[in-house]
Amino acid sequence: IGQGLNTKVAQVAAFVLGIPLERVRIETSNTITGANSFLTANSMASELVGISVRKACTTLNERLEPVKQRLGANAKWEEVIESAFMQSISLIATDAFKTGDQQNYSIFGLSLSELELDILTGNHLIRRVDILEDAGESLSPSIDVGQVEGAFVMGLGYYLTELLLYDRQTGRILTNRSWNYHPPGAKDIPIDFRIELLQKNPNPVGFLRSKATGEPAFCLAVGVLFAMQHAIQSAREDAGLPREWVRLGAPTTPETVVLSAGSEVHQFALK
């Protein structure tokens, strides 16, 4: 989650300037190139940076337009830049996102999760997940599919494994290392993971008609808790217990599953 920003920005610059993507190079972010840069959070980095890049590239296009008209429509990019350089036309443009450049909008998504639960240990396997997400007209579909996958798996950690425990006397966090704090690993990823972006649904107020994809799928991961609830109810029925709602929190750890499944010690006796 959060990867691919440079690729999207390069694609925006190439699109606005009308040049091949290989002609665009992204420099390292620092306080010289961006003295008052903003954070990349809340799924908005692609849009905010993309808007800023489009503004700067539009400025360059306006400066280069007289040169293009003089050289003709068949002039190569290198020829246009060389001519502009010889005329001392500034080839540097700086711009920034400002409040009001982007309107708010809603993002929609659907998910279906299939989960297999081991009642003896409380461990689980996520057999299959299907997601349909509204990304508007995606800026870069391959990257956005990866964003949806990453956000969903991040949600799996929040809802299933990442337990925070604190010392009741001092407040010191006890789950402070990988031995006792468990973010999702390679085997926590759904075995059959299917992502689809909603087609032919442009966002009228989005940047280049797109929508953010960085974190919305995080919310879809709550579906695994409902799948867990169904599995626990099935186990309780097998144990002969009456059906009642089992409260599952975030995270629902294997310990919680074992304690909620209604299993009794005598049921595990070897005969």
From TrEMBL:
Gene3D superfamilies in the cross-refs: Aldehyde oxidase/xanthine dehydrogenase, molybdopterin binding domain
Domain of life: Eukaryota
Gene Ontology MF: a single term: oxidoreductase activity
Keywords, comma-separated and alphabetical: Molybdenum
Segments forming domain Aldehyde oxidase/xanthine dehydrogenase second molybdopterin binding: 1-190
Keyword Zinc among record annotations: no
InterPro entries from the UniProt entry: Ald_Oxase/xanthine_DH-like, AldOxase/xan_DH_MoCoBD2, AldOxase/xan_DH_Mopterin-bd_sf
Pfam family, one: MoCoBD_2
Coiled coil: none
PANTHER family registered for this protein in UniProt: ALDEHYDE OXIDASE 1-RELATED, XANTHINE DEHYDROGENASE
Name by which UniProt lists this protein: Aldehyde oxidase/xanthine dehydrogenase second molybdopterin binding domain-containing protein
